[in-house]
Specification:
The complex is a heterodimer. By secondary structure, chain A is of the alpha+beta class. Helix content of chain A is 10%, strand content 16%. Chain A has a domain at 34-97: Alpha-Beta Plaits (2-Layer Sandwich), CATH 3.30.70. Chain A has helices at residues 50-54, 80-84; strands at 36-40, 60-62, 68-70, 90-94. In chain A, strands 1-4 form a two-stranded antiparallel ribbon. A two-stranded antiparallel sheet of chain A has the order 2-3. Chain B has 2 domains: 4-246, Rossmann fold, CATH 3.40.50; 253-386, 3-Layer(aba) Sandwich (Rossmann fold), CATH 3.40.50. In chain B, 41% of the residues lie in helices and 18% in strands. Chain B has helices at residues 9-19, 34-45, 59-71, 82-87, 89-97, 122-125, 140-155, 184-190, 214-246, 271-284, 302-309, 330-339, 362-377; strands at residues 4-8, 24-27, 52-55, 76-80, 103-108, 133-136, 163-168, 176-180, 253-256, 263-267, 289-294, 296-298, 314-319, 347-352, 384-386. In chain B, helix 12 links the parallel strand 13 and strand 14 (347-352). In chain B, helix 10 packs across helix 13. Chain B is globular. The model of chain B has no long low-confidence stretch (mean pLDDT 97). The chains are: A alpha+beta, B alpha/beta. Chain A binds chain B through residues 3, 6-11, 13, 15-20, 22, and chain B through 97-100, 160, 197-198, 205-208, 210, 212-213, 215-216, 218-220, 222-223, 226. Bound molecules: iron/sulfur cluster (2 copies). One iron/sulfur cluster binds next to helix 1 of chain A.
Chain lengths: 97, 392
Amino acid sequence: MAVKDAIIGWKQLPHGCFVLEPGNSEKFKTGDWKSQRPVLDKEKCIKCAMCWIFCPEMAYTKNAEGFYIVNLDYCKGCGICSNECPKDAISMVPEEA
Amino acid sequence: MGNRVGVEVSIAVADAVKLCNVDVIAAYPITPQTHIVEHLSEIVADGHLDAEFIPVESEHAAMSCCCGSSAAGARTYTSTSSQGFALMSEIVYIASSMRFPIVMNVANRALSGPISIWNDHSDIMAHRDIGWIQTFAENGQEAVDLTIHAFKVAENKKVSLPVIVNLDGFICSHVIEPIIMPTQEEVDAYLPPFKPIYKLDPKKPVSMGTVGIPEVYTEAKVAHNEALKASKRVILDEWKKFGEMFGRYYNAVETYKTEDAEIIFVTMGSISETAMTAVDGMREKGEKVGLVRIRLWRPFPNAEFKKAIGKARILAVLDRALSPGAVNGPVGSELKSLLYKVPGAPKIFNFIAGLGGRDMTLERFNEILEKTKLYDKKKPTENYEVIGVREL
Ligand code: SF4
Ligand code: SF4
């Protein structure tokens, strides 16, 4: 679980609680609390990249075929991609309890 | 050594800030701090100091600018008072938790309402827990010296915390006093250029001011508090070095005629000068009284205070702020908790006086002494008493 990585003692905390390593948020898998996940219908997708642009977590990456594929380790399930998709190619599916 | 000059304390403080060669001043004028920042803006505008003077639109912006400039590695100064301090409140906690060594003079003034531009300690006591180092000057010389000392302490890599130097509004800030102004050579020798531990630098990126999830927040607070407590050693050490350089020595707590004193007054700030005169008068009448003045308020100098009161039987603690609904005044609360169940601890009587510019006269000190002697025999019904209030 992501939070375990943050469990350090007060003596180990960086000065001023600064983050000293650029881009280290990648190490924190923040996608573990979503209640729904985006599911792509490749039949409908026109590869316009709107999902990639709007995702606030930058969870999408383009694959070899040109589709935008979500990384569920970081997706928080907000549904913005689904909302912005002009082709209704992304449906939000509830996470299993 | 510098010349002894007759100068308004605010002007001298501004000159001291100039001597410290600050890079950025972000401030908003507010009575009774105005002369400090006005004079600094003149100094910068006239080209006598190579600094950015940012005339911000509010105190909230002032402290925000200070955080930004300190983060960028600039030696940063501001000053405020009362309502202005209240308006910057949100950001002062951030400055200390992010360990920015900003120096600020607070020209102490009452908080509204009713509207009062006059002196007491309610502005700083409302900010007791902001995590800054806090000292109290008694007079102009001290305000100058503590301000120079503040930069040295703040920027010490072991400390890296912001410092407030309090001076009483009007009764210290606006008085013309003889002050020995240090020379530029002396200050340069005492205060090396600021070298931040981390700064905002695209070549070496860091993130400052990130979120602290519940798994981290407690540790962050403890780390800050431990740094503040540990700063005492550096503060005392730097006062020693200041003394060696400038010939004026300072302690966390000062004593006056306490050696054989049975009753000790406890004060902070300029009221202490009146208190010394009061003690002299009482001693002439055979009263065994003395004075302890707290200069270092945060971190509180526990050991030094206990040592200073020696074997006194009674402390008469003066607060210049009222803590509504509390058990005592802020200083009274502090000292009663410090000495609770300490074997042989003195009785403590807490008096609140000099609110919103009400003069603290020798007669008032006499009244406090009489009440203290009375309460020694007959326990008071209240934990603290407001002196000089009209009970009508
Ligand atoms: S927004 Fe919709 S259509 Fe466009 S790339 Fe993403 S999934 Fe495909
Ligand atoms: S649901 Fe939200 S976080 Fe997840 S991929 Fe879509 S836009 Fe990104």
